[in-house]
Amino acid sequence: MHDLRFRWIASGAVMLAAQVATADDWPQFRGPNRDAISQETGLLRQWPEAGPKVLWSVEVCEGYAAPVVHTGRVYFNDYDRKSRTWFVRCAALEDGKALWRFSDKKRIRANHGITRTVPAVDGKYVFSLDPKCVFHCLDAATGEELWRKSLVKEYGSTIPAWYAGQCPLVEPDRVVIATGGRAVLVALDKATGSEIWKTPNPDKLAMSHVSVMPAVIGGVKQYLYNTLKGPLGVAADDGRVLWHFPWKFNVAVPVSPVVIGDDRVFLTSCYEADTVMIRVRREGDTFSAEKVFSLSPSDWNSETHTPVVYKDHMFGVGKKRRGLFTCLDFDGKQVWTSKGKASFGLGSYLLADGMFYVLEGATGMLRLLEANTSEYKELASAQLLDGHDVWAPLALSDGKLLIRDMTKLVCVEVGQGK
Question: The pTM is what?
């Protein structure tokens, strides 16, 4: 077990919440620091002609619910349409063997898939938001339910279109989730579910599909959250709103805010919404936010996944001409795209060991790209999935990459193996 570590992003001023976990764990949405970057090294830079070795696969219900990994255990949400039962499942990372399964009877009709949310685990607890906004805390070792909260009943939340899509944020002393209704965000004690604080919601902001992101801006730790009416920053100590930037997103907003350095936030979304970079300033106890630049959808935007920041650039799959993997500078200018090389649809991606793993959302092809700020450079590719709508986030732990389509979850060896 490695020591508890803190990782600094960009200039070193943004310290994200550290997890008590091994360096190989992927304990929550977008990994330990919620930046879709793994610290693993020694990964394969070339694959055999048949692709990386498939270690195991399991059947899953249609949806986009990616797994998380902690100390050799894989946790993921699932559903059985015949029995109308929602599950949190736990399996061994090494061989996919089932370890336990928590079940809850619940009728959920397919609506562009069923499962969307990624659980979070800290080694002791597993936190999972089900499609109808019931928030569950389970014992990570046994799957026993320790407490639950119906966000609809307790906070007046409205279940978003296409069901809940946000993924809980776990910190050393709390779990944070957006509710809408009578609060914007709530921080809950992990052991009991009791409120540490809640953010007032006088503007009646509804729950979006966005996951809460931690940041330090102006020396103040805060949580960033995107709503249909724009992003806001919430103080980590007491839940008060520090700033709000009015910005219109259309129909739905699934892409989380991206922190750039210690004072900028990049915001993008789907349904022809404009992308915008804002600067958040602190003067004394007051914060303000202003636009730095914006991009129209014809310039660039991301429909589903949150861009990755690497070497003073942003990387992501853009909507323009549907699915070009793109490198942007911090002024929003395109350095390069995958035009003429590959189209990724709404596929997901993560960064590890100087390489991007990127899925083609329409085909299930996995491509390995060099993390290059000058040009698109592909290192390897493999057809590992054959389903459609391959949109779920990826997870990487101990040299094993977890990917899924609408029918199965697959574990492949991208490290040196044993």
Answer: 0.92
